[in-house]
Amino acid sequence: MDAIRGTASGNAPVPLSVLDLATVGHGRTATHALRTGVDIARLAESRSFHRYWVAEHHSMPGVASSSPAVILAHIAAHTDRIRLGSGGVMLPNHAPLVIAEQFGTLEAFAPGRIDLGLGRAPGTDGATAAALRRTDRPHSLKGMGGTPIHEGADDFPQQLAELTRFLDDDFPDGHPYARIHAVPGPVQGPSARPPIWLLGSSGFSARLAGTLGLPFAFAHHFSAQNTIPALDLYRESFRPSAVLDAPYALIGVSALATDDEKEARRQVLTGALSMLRLRSGRPGLIPTPEEAEAYAFSPLEREFVDGWLGNVIHGTPDTVRTGLDDLAKRTGVDELMITANAHGGDVRLRSYELIADAYGLPRA
What we know:
By secondary structure, the protein is of the alpha/beta class. The chain is 41% helix and 14% strand. The protein has helices at 30-46, 68-77, 96-109, 126-133, 156-168, 203-212, 227-237, 261-279, 289-294, 299-309, 317-331, 345-358, and strands at residues 16-20, 51-54, 83-90, 114-119, 141-142, 148-149, 196-200, 216-218, 249-257, 313-315, 335-339. The strands form 2 sheets. It has an 8-stranded parallel β-barrel with strand order 1-2-3-4-7-8-9-11, surrounded by 8 helices. Strands 5-6 form a two-stranded antiparallel ribbon. β3 (83-90), α3 and β4 (114-119) form a beta-alpha-beta unit.
């Protein structure tokens, strides 16, 4: 089985996958969010979604996915077949050896099912990034989604090369790390290793992924204006490698299906208000639909929310299917990774079920 390329199921135009942000709604807890993640992963597996990824975020009350490797180990214990991965681990936050050890351990838990998606941004604000990396000061560089990048992000290609060598256990003789081995890993005997994906919301990782012949995942769900240029750059830059003989790209897309059009709008407004607060430096728990409906948006805030919701495919299952079909056709992507942002876990679960039904995805 191809470790990267998926196969479309049912009537879907491309393979469908899931990105879970482990969102924490007002009145809920991280325990609720993480238990919902298990339920979503099991549903995704039972309805023939191709993969389930979680994303690294820090110091955000409304997100419980600060430790992707820990979450994935738990999900692996509750699933059997679906691919599991990070969308992504933020490489500048960690020593490459640590990531190689963590994902080598995950591969040992779930052989042949693990993806290692890597991001260049810290997934948080500058001060938190400094605390994570123990640098002496925050700084003002900007990265994915407009979040500051700490100094390690400038060394991303070198960090990636180091991580790859730890995963392959092939530092050359004379290298300072030649006698260091990431375990579990190849030093213990022949074994597969997680395929590396590069993630991005601009052109940097698109070009790098293409040059290295790696699969690429683009954050369309929060950087839609850059989607086509980044995908074009990836395809133009692509060089065949031992990993891929042709480009393979997926995009993350926000989509929420409900049985009623108005209810869909009511539910996605919670995510829009949460993003507004995050972008204005007031991160918090995901508001309830009632709180979002009652919020008095200023004209500038309303403009932001309307723009944000314009990039969220939402409505009845048929409406969502049409939106996803159009997006797949317009971008020419090889896979769609759906993230459902709403206050309640039951709403998100129901959305994935409705989307699966709309495409006739088979039940395992």
